[in-house]
Amino acid sequence: MVVLIEIPFYIFSGLAILFAGVILFTKNLLYGAFSLVGTFLCVAAIYVLAQAEFVAVTQLMVYVGGIVVLLIFGVMLTNKITDKGIITSSYNRFLGAIIAISLFVVLFYGILKINFGAVKGQSADMNNVNQIGVELLTEYLLPFEIAAVVLLIALIGSSVISGYKTKETDE
Amino acid sequence: MSSEYYFILAAALFCIGLAVIITKKNAVMVLMGVELVLNAANINFVAVNKNNLVSLDGQFFALFVIVMAAAEAAVGLAIILKLFKYYKTTELDKINQLKG
Amino acid sequence: MINPADLLEPLAWSQSTILCLLVLLLPLFSFIVIAILPNTQAKASAWVGMFMTLIASIISVHLLIAGWQGAGIHSRVEWFSFGHLPPFTVGVLLNDPALLMLVVVTVISFLVHLFSTAYMAGDAGYKKYFGFLGLFTFSMLGIILADNVLVIFIFWELVGLSSYLLISHWNHKESAIKAAKKAFIVNRVGDVGFIIGLAILWSQFNTLDLEALKVLMQASTIENGQWIAGAHSVSLPWLTAAGICLFLGAMGKSAQFPLQVWLPDAMEGPTPVSALIHAATMVAAGVYLMARVFPLMSIDALTFVAIIGSVTAFMGAIAALAQHDIKKVLAFSTISQLGYMLMGMGVGAYDAALFHLFTHAFFKACLFLSAGAIIHALHDYAHRADIHFDAQDMRNMGGLRKYLPFTFIAYLVSTLALIGIPFFSGYLSKDALLSGAYAWADLMSERTLSWHYLVPDLGFITVVLTALYMVRQLLLVFFGDFRIADERSIEANIKVKDVPWVMKTALSILALMSFGFIWSLNPLNHSLSWFLSALKTPTILVPGMNGNWQNNLVELAEHNHMQVTVISVFMIVIGGLVAWFIYRPKGKYAINYFSRQGASNVWQWLSFNNWYLDEIYNDFIIQPIEVLSQKLQLLDTKVIDNFIDKFAIFNIILGHLTAWVDRNIVDGLVNFSVYFVGRVGLMTKSMQGGKVQSYIALAFVGILIFIFWIIW
After folding, report:
1. Rounded CA separation C646/C636 (Å)
2. pLDDT in tens, C116-134
3. Residues of B in contact with C691 (CB under 8 A)
4. Do the Cβ atoms of B34 and A78 come closer than 8 Å?
5. C315-356 pLDDT tens trace
6. Does B40 reside within a domain?
7. B19 and chain C: CB distance < 8 Å anywhere?
8. Is the dihedral of CA C20, C25, C28, C29 positive or negative?
9. B93: in domain
10. Which of B60, B87, B92, B96 to mutate to test the interface with A (most CBs of A within 10 A)?
11. CA-CA distance, C460 to C454, in Å (whole number)?
């Protein structure tokens, strides 16, 4: 069992890092966007492996179905579509590499220093989705409602920001 | 399956996301980097919650982060559109009015 | 102990002293007025000068009559003060000698002004001449009136300056310029001594006020070879040195041996100037200075004065014997007579010396002005006869009594006065001088045979010589034939014209003053003279002085007076007869005189060249100094200039080096720091690139550092 879980974990985490690497190194925006989809899918698989089925589903619905589409729309709206592809370049590469690598080294070192084996694991008897639904409407009701309001405000705000305005108010 | 592997994966995704944020010129790409970073954080929450599935606090955090990410993406894209309308570009190195 | 500050209280001004100041300032005023007169108004300058000096003379005569034989009047004000020293005062000290000198200077100055109006007529420097006469008179009056030795010194130098200006009046003549320079420089030699004397007195007494000096000198004492005055003490020889140094000043001005060389050359100036400066006033300033400081002179210093005086009297008389220039004879005679006066001062015959100063002032001024009249007449003659000859050379004269009778009489009278014939003024004063000298020799040698007798003996010999050269001059100028007319065979109808009346006026007044009865009711006995009886010899106040010395001197002088008179008259007769024998008209000398060149034997050459003093100075002082200066110049150009050149080159090299260091190292440092700061600025500027991502990156750098800090 342990092995059965580990193998897909390695596969999906490797794929996730690979897709992330493509985002990092590609020059084409659309490649980047699609690699992001790949990454999200792999991460969703990781969530499943970590026994967070509901989060994985939400990940698929929100990220892959919503955010990525939104991003691709953004790409389309801000670039002229030509046959050359939507190219972007990068800069600050040296600084970025140093920061990223050194941060990774530090985190890696820190993670290795912590002994997570001491943490005792506990299993739930309840269905995950069921449990989340119950808790969402009982214990996490207030954050849930606030999240709804936040989403509404974000929706309004984004439409206000990007919407057309009359000549008089537009600076 | 110990949590360290999740954390290391999360750290790797986080660092790649960070590198994307820092190096990419296009604003949409920067937003993608931000999504990567948020995913890395979510992996951490979920991995921590994996050891104690009784309370599911970590998963809730991950859920709320996804909600916030959606809002963030919407507002961020709106801002990018506005920027594009104003500067006629989304290349961030050309938008340097903060320059001292 | 006396506090010098108490002696220097300001003294109130009286009517007399204010009038004195007026007399002093009138000639200065004349100088200023003439200086600002336009050049076209040259005639007016003479009238200004004459008017001012006439007023000054009238005031002086008034002062003399009012103040004669009164107590001395002394007024002064504080000039300045410094430190803890007593204040420096300046004022007017009016006593009998000062009053007399005042009259002599102003009257003779007036007469010279009067004479000059005719003599200088048509001269290009007419205005300048009268201006400088005013300046000279002012300076001379300053010497007479000042109560302070330093103020006397200041006017003393002013006199030197104005004398320089007047001697070089004809400044287109090389000889006149040289003579003026010579007079000035030789006088400086004496003035160095003068100022050293002042320094000694100042360091000892801290004041130079004459009256205060007298009191302090009397209060000073001598102990163990030290001369003590208050807190100051120096060794005893300084007491004598002070007197001798003051005398050095007088030596320069009064043309005493060895500084007498300037006076004959000074005859280059206009003749009235010679009369004023080199007969009556400036040369007498030295004698007058001695009279002022007489109480401060020690016996040794006085002895020095007496020796120098007698030697000068003798040398001057010898030098006068063989001269051909009419003014040179008078100049040497003046030197000789000044020697007499200083000899008189030296032997303690203060009154006699001053008496001779006054009588001499008048008869010598008369002689000079007569000579001036002769020169003027001969110039006029040369102009009309259209020939050129030296109007001052006696070889060109002769027989002038027929053409210039008035001048002849004036000349004769003053010559007789100079020789010392009874009934004339010179007899009285010279007799008094010789009596004093003889008495001094008696007293000093204590009636044993001693070198002290040389002083009166030289005096007696000088009497012979004076008679000799004056009779020679009289004979050569006024008797015999008019040589220039005979030799150049000029037509007989061109004659020498008599001089204008202004000259005659001046001459007559001066000649009148040469008669003995003006000065004494009994013209045979000087001791009955109103002058000498009025003039009291001041007591010598030098410490360590035998109080009876001066009394003994007076007694002895009265005692031997008869002897001296007989001897001197005898001497005069000898001199006169010898002169008549040698220089008589139609004599061998007179006939060959026109073609005579210089002198014929060693002794005459010695006389003609004034003892070769000029040559001696030239060989022993001027030449060595010139050689030395040439050597020094050589040293300067060769060694010092070279050294300085090298030093300059070294400096230039050093300058280049430092410039290099400056440009490359110092500038380099500055440039480097600027460059460094610039780079740092660029780097930090790049951080502020306005790019949000860079800010994020840097923020993460900070976070990284933070995490490092926490983990380790």
Report:
1. 14
2. 888 888 888 888 888 898 9
3. 92-93, 96, 98-99
4. no
5. 888 888 888 888 888 889 999 999 989 998 888 888 888 888
6. yes
7. no
8. negative
9. no
10. B60
11. 10
